[in-house]
């Protein structure tokens, strides 16, 4: 431990954002990193707890106190090795993970000032790339076994990298023309520059992974072909069946009502220089935008709408407004329900809670012109409309960011005939990740449902170990 009393002597210092007026003019990342000395000092705040609850908070079980200590002593390359021992892509999680590890930090419980774990993590891996420490790890031997992975999101990529390093021949299939899945198309560039994906793809190609973009398994490529040609198949296609307004909501399919992912993916394609083809552009410029859904995807819609030049952005959430602070004696070290404001919401957004949509009002051309909404009461444990609380919001563009219900079943899942659970996800446990069909495995959101990137990486790594054990009879890969 570099400094036993560091947590008493050093104040928490985290990364800052560039000014709102500056950052809304572009789609680049706008986080201002700490200096190397500042990061080292923040690492010295780690208490080296007897029971490091941050391990429990982190889904991939990052060995956080160890690399905090190494950074505090300026042993950056060793810290990188420790970080990579549990996380294939720390530059992903260091930018877009909500940091449940920090919520579980003992200093969060005692002083409301957890160690800046996510910032330190990001600084370690960024320095690793800058210094050229991160290189392809080509396996010393090949097993002769082949694995097909369907989906190139974080679960698929993590699984692929673990398996190719174990010596297997790995082929990744992706339906889109660029690799990365939700990382590529669902997360705005101002939060996550896509160069981070491209760099890892290049590393994995050098390690021996073969990628096939523009290949939809279940359409262009029959699933049966994969089952014939490969020794194992991993389904990592994500959870893409979006939750929409119920058909009972009049005007739910009006012109100007769009799914959040359609809106976000279009903008990401524009930033990357890809054309939209025959797809009708969704543009918020000069419009009254209403985002339905108060989560991360809704926040991304807010930030993107502002950058496109929306006249006004309103974000609605059906759940009640969270408390400003959590009751730590009750919830710590678990992830708390409390009020949070994202960088996008800070940029200019009106937020409202306990609001349910009753009707999409349209004009003579069938285009959305307003929303009729009503306030709901949650005291009974479920939403009940409050009589006389209806009101109307002007809207030219409505973005549905209401989450995802399960993977798309048509095509891949129907063709493989895997069993589904009661929620419509692929049925499998988190020990062997095997489906009801021999040699077919599943990982990530396709198994657990809509979740975080860090959970996808965990599942990809653990599924890789399960596949390796299936192919070889044992596995040296970590869980």
Short description:
This protein is an alpha/beta fold and 479 residues long. 36% of the residues lie in helices and 16% in strands. The protein has 3 domains: 6-131, Orthogonal Bundle (Fumarate Reductase Iron-sulfur Protein, Chain B, domain 2), CATH 1.10.1060.10; 146-240 and 405-472, FAD/NAD(P)-binding domain (3-Layer(bba) Sandwich); 244-402, FAD/NAD(P)-binding domain, CATH 3.50.50.
> How many separate domains make up the residues?
3
CATH topology of the largest domain: FAD/NAD(P)-binding domain
Q: Uncertain segments of ≥5 residues (pLDDT<50)? A: none
Distance between the ends: 27 Å
Query: What would you call the shape?
Result: globular
Identify the strand order in the major beta sheet. Answer: 5-4-3-6-18
Architecture of the largest domain in CATH?
3-Layer(bba) Sandwich
Q: Share of helix among residues? A: 25-40%
Radius of gyration: 23 Å
User: Strand-residue fraction?
Assistant: 15-25%
Largest sheet: 5 strands, parallel
Overall average pLDDT: 96
Name the CATH superfamily assignment of the largest domain: FAD/NAD(P)-binding domain
- By CATH reckoning, the class of the largest domain would read Alpha Beta
- The structural class is alpha/beta
Number of helices: 21
How many strands in all? Answer: 18
């Amino acid at each position: 431990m570099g400094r036993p009393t560091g947590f008493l002597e050093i104040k928490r210092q985290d990364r800052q954002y560039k000014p709102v007026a500056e950052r809304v003019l572009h789609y680049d990342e706008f986080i201002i990193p700490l200096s190397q000395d500042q990061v080292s000092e923040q690492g010295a705040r780690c208490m080296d707890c007897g029971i490091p609850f941050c391990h429990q908070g982190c889904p991939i079980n990052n060995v956080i106190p160890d690399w905090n200590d190494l950074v505090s002593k300026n042993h950056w390359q060793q810290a990188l090795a420790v970080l990579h021992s549990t996380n294939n892509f720390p530059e992903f999680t260091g930018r877009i993970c909500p940091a449940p590890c920090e919520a579980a930090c003992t200093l969060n419980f005692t002083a409301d000032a957890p160690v800046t774990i996510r910032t330190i993590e990001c600084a370690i891996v960024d320095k690793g790339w800058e210094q050229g420490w991160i290189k392809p790890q080509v396996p010393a031997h090949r097993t002769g076994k082949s694995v097909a992975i369907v989906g190139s999101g974080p679960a698929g990529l993590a699984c692929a990298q673990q398996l190719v390093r174990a010596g297997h021949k790995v082929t990744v299939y992706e339906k889109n023309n660029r690799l990365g899945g939700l990382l590529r198309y669902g997360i705005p560039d101002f939060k996550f520059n896509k160069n981070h994906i491209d760099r890892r793809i290049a590393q994995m190609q050098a390690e021996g992974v073969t990628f096939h973009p523009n290949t939809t398994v279940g359409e262009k490529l029959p699933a049966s072909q994969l089952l014939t040609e490969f020794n194992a198949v991993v389904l990592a296609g994500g959870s893409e069946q979006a939750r929409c307004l119920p058909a009972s909501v009049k005007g739910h399919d009006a012109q100007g009502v769009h799914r959040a992912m359609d809106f976000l993916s279009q903008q990401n394609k524009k930033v990357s220089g890809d054309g939209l083809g025959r797809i009708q552009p969704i543009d918020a410029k000069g419009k009254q935008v209403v985002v339905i859904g108060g989560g991360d995807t809704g926040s991304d819609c807010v930030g993107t709408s502002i950058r496109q030049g929306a006249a006004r952005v309103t974000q609605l959430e059906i759940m009640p407004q969270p408390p400003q602070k959590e009751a730590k004696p009750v919830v710590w070290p678990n992830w708390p329900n409390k009020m949070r404001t994202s960088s996008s919401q800070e940029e200019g957004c009106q937020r409202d809670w306990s609001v349910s949509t009753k009707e999409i009002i349209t004009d003579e051309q069938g285009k959305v012109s307003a929303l009729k909404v009503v306030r709901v009461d949650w005291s009974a444990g479920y939403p009940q409309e409050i009589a006389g609380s209806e009101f109307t919001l002007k809207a030219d563009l409505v973005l549905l960011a209401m989450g995802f219900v399960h993977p798309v079943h048509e095509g891949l899942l129907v063709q493989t005939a895997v069993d589904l659970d009661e929620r419509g996800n692929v049925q499998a446990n988190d020990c062997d990740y095997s489906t009801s069909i021999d040699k077919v495995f599943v990982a990530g959101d396709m198994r657990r449902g809509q979740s975080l990137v860090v959970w996808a990486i965990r599942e990809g790594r653990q599924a890789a170990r399960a596949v390796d054990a299936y192919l070889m009879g044992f596995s040296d890969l970590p869980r």
